[in-house]
Fold:
Amino acid sequence: MTVDTHTMSPTEPSLTLVGDSAPESSGHPSPAEAKILSRDQLLARRAEARAAGRRVVHCHGCFDIVHPGHLRHLRHARAQGDILLVSITGDSLINKGDGRPLIPQELRAENLAALDCVDWVYIEPRPTAVELLEDVRPDIYVKGREYEFNNDPRFRAEQEAVTRHGGRVVFSSGDVVFSSTALIAALEHSADPYHARMKALLANTDLDGENLTRTISKFRGKRVLVIGETIADTYVLCDRPDIAGESPIMTLRPVERRSYDGAAAIIARHLAAMGAKPTLVTAMPDTAECAAIAGRLNAEGVSVRPVTIDTPLPEKQRFLVGGQKVMKLDLVQPIELDSARQDLLTGLAADAAAENGGCDAAIIADFGLGLLSQRVLGRVSGAVRAKTSVMTGDVSGRRAQLRAMRDFDLLCPSESELREAYHLHDQGLPMVAWRLLSETRSKSAIVTMGAEGLIAFDRLPDRRDEGAWEHKLKAEHVPAMSLHAIDALGCGDALLSAATLGLACGCEMLPSAFLGAIAAAVQVQRLGNTVVGATDLRHGVVRLHTSHLTYQSAEVIESRSRVRVKRAV
Structure:
C-alpha cells in the first residue's frame, strides 16, 4: 500500500526586496510591467530625461485603492510635464492601522502602471519620499490640495528637498476628494460579519501570532497516547464516467489508486508531524499490509502497539472523477474483541499511559467499527484517565459511542453527530452541547459545523451545579478559515490533534480550538488524508495575521445569517 504519493505541504513564501529590483515575469515584460523600475533603472532614466530636456513630474503616496480622486490627481500631474513618476510606500512602512495596506505593494504598483497617464512606477523602501526626492530631483512635485496649508514636518521636508534642487511643488485641483482610509473603513462596516468575527478573534491577546507560534513550539516532545481503529482510506481516481450499454447505469474506469492511513493512524501521524511523541494503541490483522503500516508509522516517530484481530483491515474506498467524489464503498467488517483481547487492549493502553510517569495527553477516537464498544470504552478511558493530564475524544459514524465518553477534558463531535446522539435536531446548539457536557461530566466540547466553522463550548468555572445551563456555559465561534474546500476528509482528525496538543501545553479552550481550526483549514485544502505538521500550523498563523479583507456576495452573507439565527438559543 502506498501513502502520500503526492506531497502537498505549502511552500515557503518568496521574498522581494522592494526598491532594489523590479518584479519579474516569465518571458518579456508587458508594457505595464516595464513601467515598474528598480532604483538603478529609475535613476538612469531620470538622467536620460534630464539630458533630453524633458520635465519629470513626481507623485508619491500609498495608493492602496485607486479611486476617482487619485485618477484626477494623476491626470493633473501628468499635464504639468513630459514624464510622470509615481512612487508608492512599501508595505512594511505604511502606518494606517491594522490590515493596511489592503493591496500588496506589487499589485499596487501594477495598478498604477496600467494607467496610461503614468510613465514610471517605483516602490519606495524608505519611510518617506525625502531621500527619493533628493535622488530623482523632479522638476515638479505634485501633492493633494489638502497639503497646501499642511504643517506636517514630513511634507515640509519633502518640499524643501524639491525646492533645494530647483524644482517646484504644485498642488492638485482637489475638485474630487476621496480618502482611501475612509473608503476601506466603510467597506469593513459592510463586509461579511464573519470577517468582523475573525478580526475580533485576532485582536484577542491569547490568539496573538507570537503566542500561538510559541505554543506550537511547545508541542515538541509531548507524550500523547492515541487509542482507536486504523482504517485504509483509498482514493480511486477514475476517467470520465460513461453510461453502460446493458442498462442506464454509470460506468467508472479507474486510472489511479491512492491509499492513505486513516482514523487513529492519521491522528498519530499528525501528532508526530506537529512535534509530539505519540503512541498508537490499535487493532490490526497480522498481514504484510499492516506490517508496512506499522513500519511506516514507526519511521515517522509513532510507537505502534497493536492488538491482533482476525478480520481484514477496514478499508473505505472513494471513487473520484476529477476532484469530485461520486461514490463511496465501505469494505468493513465489524471488529469484535473477545474478553482476552479486551483485556489486552485495556492493558496496552494503561501501560502506555503510565510510561515515564504518565503521558501529557490521551486521545480516544471511536470510528464506530466495534473496537471501542461501550464496555471497552469505559474500561479503557477509566484506565487512562488517572495517568494523563488531558484526555480528549472524537467519534465518527452512527455506531460511535459519544455518550459513553465520560470525564473527558474535550469532546469533538460534528454538529450532526452531536444532534444524532441525542435525537435533538431542532433545539439550539448550545443547549444540546450542554446536554453532552452535563451527561458525560466532560469539561468542554468543540462542535464542528463544516463551512460554518466551529463553536468551542467550555464550562464556566465553579458553576457546574448552579442555576440554568445558560449561566454555566461559555461559547466561542471560530469561522471556517478556508473559503473553498477541496476535500473534507480528515479535517476533524487534524483539528483534534492540534487542539489536544494546545490543551496539553496549558492553553485555554479558545486558543486550542483556534489552532485546531487552522489545522482543519490546512487539511481541507488537500486531496486525501495527508499529514498536517507544525510548519503548516505556523504558516497558517502567519497567513491569518497578515491577511486583509475578503468579501462575500450578499447571497452568501444572507444565507450565513439565516444559519446563525437557526443555531441561536
The longest strand covers residues 254-263. The chain has three domains: 31-189, 192-220+409-569, 221-357. DSSP finds 19 helices and 20 strands in the chain.
